Amino acid sequence: MTGTETFKLAMPPAARRTPGNRRSLRQSIRDSLVMAYRSVLKMRRTPEQFFDVTLQPIVFTLMFTYLFGGAISGNVLSYLPVIIPGILVQTVLTTSSSTGVQLREDMDKGVFNRFRTLPIARIAPLAGALLADTVRFAIAAVLTLIMGYIMGYRPNLGGIVAGGLLVMFSA
Questions:
Q1: What pLDDT score was predicted for residue 30?
Q2: How far is residue 100's CA from residue 149's CA, in Å, rounded to a whole number?
Q3: pLDDT tens, position by position, 37-90
Q4: Helix (H) or strand (E) segment spanning residue 116
Q5: Which of 5, 11, 25, 130 suits 157 as a labelling partner, its CA being 20 to 30 A distant?
Q6: Which long-range contacts (CB under 8 A, 24 or more apart) does 165-171 make?
Q7: Distance between CA 73 and CA 68 in Å, rounded?
Q8: What rounded mean pLDDT belongs to the chain?
Q9: Does pLDDT of 119 surpass 70?
Q10: Long-range contacts of range 67-75, CB-CB < 8 Å, 24 or more positions apart?
Q11: Would you say residue 123 lies in a domain?
């Protein structure tokens, strides 16, 4: 017998083989939540990501409303229903671009190679990043809506929830 024939005899049939990284749904969700927590911690420690989530919605809402509000709509209050949804979309798009950059940095640094050696679900690093982005989008949306409310924006609650969900899950 040659070495390859020994290998073929030693391997079990395909029906009895199971992948070594098989995780249950509960374990996959738990792994994804751990990866989301890792991404949120990275956001807290990276100043530019923290700026994207907290300061950018506030600064842009104030700046664009008071610079262009009187010129475009005549007064600030009539411009708020136009600018607040625009700021929400702008913030989500800017924040979502940082997700791709983070994932690429993790790949370049070899973090994903280390994740492959861990006993975690294969989808957990990507799902965790997406969950963390949802948290970041929610923080940015709430801050934008609070700023708009302080400035006089009074939409109905159903519109806020529908618009927020549409913006968060469309990016």
A1: 92
A2: 32
A3: 988 888 778 777 778 788 888 888 888 888 877 777 777 788 888 888 888 888
A4: helix 111-117
A5: 130
A6: 167/85, 167/88, 167/89, 167/92, 167/137, 167/141, 168/92, 168/134, 168/137, 168/138, 168/141, 169/134, 170/92, 171/92, 171/93, 171/95, 171/96, 171/133, 171/137
A7: 8
A8: 79
A9: yes
A10: none
A11: yes
How many residues belong to the chain? 171
Which two structure tokens, joined as six digits, stand for 44? 């807290």
pTM, 2 dp: 0.74
Where in the sequence is the domain holding 93, given as residue range(s)? 24-170
Q: Does a structural domain hold residue 86?
A: yes
Whole-angstrom distance, CA of residue 8 vs CA of residue 118: 28
Domain count, the chain: 1
Residue 33 binned pLDDT confidence (cut-offs 50, 70, 90): very high
Q: Residue type for 133, please?
A: D
Check residue 20 and give its pLDDT: 56
Is residue 5 included in any domain, yes or no? no
The answer to the question of residue 155 being in a domain is yes
Q: Find the helix or strand (DSSP H, E) in which 55 lies.
A: none
CA distance 41 to 30: 17
Picking from 3-17, 101-115, 120-134, which range would have the lowest pLDDT averaged per residue? 3-17
Cα–Cα distance, 60 to 10 (Å, whole number):
65
